From TrEMBL:
Organism: Thermomonas hydrothermalis
InterPro entries, per database record: Nitroreductase, Nitroreductase-like, Nitroreductase_HadB/RutE, RutE-like
Protein's name in the database: Putative NADH dehydrogenase/NAD(P)H nitroreductase SAMN02745204_01463
Domain of life, source organism: Bacteria
Gene3D superfamilies in alphabetical order: NADH Oxidase
Segments forming domain Nitroreductase: 16-158
UniProt GO MF annotations: oxidoreductase activity
């Protein structure tokens, strides 16, 4: 039996964790490796794990990303220590002989059309983005996830000539509390859930 996490851990992951708009500090490559090594264990459909990530840190990479950002996301992204571009591989099924070796799961996907593959890949890479956020918070980082960008421009700048498409951006660093907006409400259980 697993023991529930204590309140401090639950606060860090959920209750007091926030979406930041400004960050300080440096995020080491080793921390990014640790982050991935945590997030990779989150479940996905048939262990497809379609997420492919570019951690944008250098000035040159930021300059490539900048033109794809919406006006409201530009400054905070350019100033963030790291921006994770979470993409999804449309040919994720090619890895299934390794990732799901106990049966021929590749055959479940390789014949599907592009729209079906995109749905599977995008849905599961979004799930993996949530794991990335939780892994980052578990390592003491703060996050600023966003979808306000031009996917076609990001794909051209970072994934040209590949089967990878961008999905979500996540700024990473140590959040500046001055950048926070008041916390938005959440729906109570009885409005969002039911037990049958």
């Amino acid at each position: 039996m697993h023991a529930p996490l204590n309140d401090a851990a639950l606060d860090q992951l959920f209750r007091t964790a926030r979406t930041y708009n400004a960050f300080t500090g440096d995020v080491s490559d080793e921390t990014l490796r640790r982050l991935y090594d945590l997030m990779k264990f989150g479940p996905t459909e048939a262990n497809t794990t379609p997420a492919r990530i570019v951690f944008v840190k250098s000035k040159e990479a930021k300059a490539k990303l900048g033109p794809a950002l919406s006006e409201g996301n530009y400054k905070k992204t350019m100033e963030a220590p790291v921006t994770a571009i979470v993409g999804y591989d449309m040919r994720f099924y090619e890895k299934l002989p390794v990732l799901f070796p106990h049966t021929d799961a590749k055959a479940w996907f390789e014949h599907r059309d592009a729209a079906e593959l995109a749905w599977v890949a995008m849905r599961n890479s979004a799930l993996q983005t949530a794991y990335l956020i939780l892994a980052a918070r578990a390592l003491g980082l703060d996050c600023g996830p966003m979808t306000g960008f031009d996917n076609a421009k990001v794909d051209e700048a970072f994934f040209a000539g590949t089967s990878i498409r961008s999905n979500i951006l996540v700024n990473l660093g140590y959040g500046d509390p001055a950048s926070l907006f008041p916390r938005s409400p959440r729906l109570p259980f009885d409005e969002a859930c039911r037990i049958e």
